Amino acid sequence: MNSNIDNLIVPRIDNLGEMSTDGIINALDDNGVRRPIDNIDYKEFPYHPLTTFSMAHSDDMLYIDFFVRCNYLRAINDRPNTPVHEDSCVAVYLQPDSKSNRYYAFEINCIGTISGMICEGDGDNACSFIDESTIGRIKCYASCGNRPFRELEGLFTWNVLIAIPLDMLGLKYDGTPLTIKGNFYKCASGTSQPHFLSWMPLDTTKRTFHQPESFGNIILS
Question: What does the record give under GO molecular function (predicted)?
């Protein structure tokens, strides 16, 4: 059952850029918008790790904190633009201009390795990697640290906090609400319990997260 709504109202929080990592996480928990990532898109992969995201923005950055509780944890990929979707991974895809086919796909594993793509339509083949220097502008904190490791079994809780510069998305916030589109995901295709979850439901006949028609409205208020 989808417990989400199409419109995600993301508040502006003062002084986020001046806070410590813990301060940002607490501010997002207390004053940001939070949603579950709870759509099981492919029924043959029923495993459903608890996953949520909390979100807010400043004048120049978009902050997203993902929280996950899972039974298997894997982080083999430790270089940008490697297949982090095979690891314990969260993702956000953002379309800054609904009149354009262009959107940005950011996938992050549990040690903060980011794969970034610019896409121009449906399907994985419509995407090209963002250069590493640009990806390096994204601030990232991972509670698991940043050293790679093979799969572990147990009960794990972890979070990844990212801060994406608005100008990297071609956006400028001047106090007037900005409406963009996007979706949020959880996956781990290379683990012992592969799974594929999303905030907004996907067309299950398409075996990809790259479905911009599924994006919900995100309003930076």
Answer: carbohydrate binding; hydrolase activity, hydrolyzing O-glycosyl compounds
For the cut 90, the answer to whether the pLDDT of residue 192 exceeds it is yes
Is the residue at 185 inside a domain? yes
Question: How many whole angstroms from its chain centre is CA 73?
Answer: 17
- Distance between CA 145 and CA 143 in Å, rounded? 5
Is the per-residue pLDDT at 122 higher than 80? no
Q: Which residue, among 118, 80, 125, has the nearest Cα to 100 in the 3D structure?
A: 118
Domains held by the chain: number: 1
Q: What is the pLDDT of residue 123?
A: 64
Backbone angles phi, psi at 107, to 5 degrees: -115, 135
Q: Name the phi and psi angles at 150, rounded to 5.
A: -80, 170
> For position 71, which CATH number holds?
2.60.40.1190
Residue 151 burial (C-beta neighbours within 10 Å; 0-12, 13-18, 19+): middle
Total-model pTM: 0.95
Q: Could you tell me if residue 2 is inside a domain? A: no
Cα–Cα distance measured from residue 28 to residue 197, given in angstroms and rounded to the nearest whole number: 22
Q: What is the mean pLDDT of residues 101-129?
A: 92
pLDDT, position 54: 99
Flag whether 22 is in a domain. yes
Determine the structural domain holding residue 154 and report its residue range.
7-220
In a domain, 1, yes or no: no
What is 10-52 written as a DSSP string? EPB-TTGGGS-HHHHHHHHHHHSEEEE--EE--TT-----EEE
